[in-house]
Write the structure tokens for this entry.
Amino acid sequence: MNLEKMYQEIILDHYKHPQHKSLAPLVSGAVEVHHINPTCGDEVTLRATVSDGLVTSVSWDGLGCSISQASTSVMAGLTQGATVEHALSLTAQFLLLMQGKGVSTEADEVLEDGIAFAGVAQYPARVKCALLGWMALKDAITRQPGEINE
Amino acid sequence: MTATSFDAEILKKDFPLLERTIRGGKKLVYLDSGATSQKPRIVLDAERNFYEEHNAAAHRGAHQLAEEATEAFEGAREVMAEFIGAQSREVVFTKSATESLNLIAYSLSATESPIQWRAGDEVLLTEMEHHANLIPWQEMAKRTGATLRFIPVTDDGLLDLTDINTLINEKTRILSFTHASNVLGTVNPVRHLADLAHAVGAIVVLDACQSVPHESVDVVALGIDLMAFSGHKMLGPTGVGVLWGRYEILESMPPFLTGGSMIEVVTLESATYSLPPKRFEAGVPNMAQAVGLAAAIRYLQNVGMDAIAQHESDLVSSAITQLEAIPGVKILGPAGPRGGALSFLVDGIHPHDVGQVLDDDGIAVRVGHHCAWPLMRRYGVAATTRATFYLYNTHEDVASLVSGVKRAQQFFGTAS
């Protein structure tokens, strides 16, 4: 069944119990970004703090479908405490997964729950949903602290 | 309804695309005609026939093909004019309703606009407009300094006319609004609003994208000045839209797109322009599309606009009754009388996810903000699921929609 392939249990679990979905206080050094999917209106606000090359904090809030919410939850869990380099590498791996390039051995090792989204790649209209949180993260950790984007 | 003269099952056979299957062999249930309609074979044949038999650049050249192409294009204009109760010279073929609305907003704010803009002037819209009848006016406001004002909507999805006598005032230069909401299904009181706006000397513009395809529309009876709608939502091809205008208004408006076809005399320094409708049809026109659209109109007329309106009304009423009976489903917009756009929310399930489950059953609906983002904000939602109906939809399609929504609730564990 296509539907079950897309909505893996892991995705539904993250959707019902999202991780880090509560914005941490906007401390000095934190970056806040707000990303919107203009085709559907789904949105995410993400706060990240980078210190000495480490992503020390990722928190978010958002409105959206199960795919966008679950994907953002998985992303926040994976990147919390990671080096910026690793977080960007994870983002790149996830993007490849969404481009339907298949699951590489490397992605399989590092993306953990993120692999559950492989089925989404077959639905081009939903790929942007899965990428919403990841693109927000990439934006946040490559900005200078104090910058706030709308 | 009496099913004797009108049988959607039979009409459906005229639409090749509706015979195909979806997502691994499922029967297609197409409930997205509000976005774009499917095309009957005779429309495709008309376009093909134009290209195979008569294709040449209309309004140019003296050879036989050019004459035939001109005749076909101008013939399409006559068919369209008769369909909406207009004169032929009042019908402008554009590429889309969006272009028609941009043309109006641009022309009425250009240097040679018939409106002499003054400080404090206002343009009145409503909170339920599609982006196509909002953003061109935002751009116009930047050029003219005019203030945009909005008729609010009630919780039930109707225009709130409580303050209409202050919203329409001596500063109002233009009133532009939708005949039927593409989200809520609301049908607005066009004549009443047009009369109020005319009493203060304003120009009245109507977005008829969701009305002309579905019911009999007579521009004179509506009492408006300008109207825009698209061909592809009324069984016609993409790439053709209509701008209708009272001739005196069109005659007073400067062109939007300029170039070939729309001129009288051209020198290196300047040009004078044709009378409408040619003034607004620069370039080689969309002849095959206009011809296809004329074929679509004949098809609609054969079926009968009143019969179509009645059929859609039956489908929407049935869908509302059945969806409302499902715990956790909420319909947006008025109970009735209403148009064919039916937006709803399913508790605990995002519209994208509702749409995905429906798609898995072969049911095509629209999910998202429907290009009416401000209206979504008004109702405090990010998106809705929207089913829209047309002459080829059946009560079986409604039943599929209803069971699809129930399946979504089961799938996401929200069924009560």
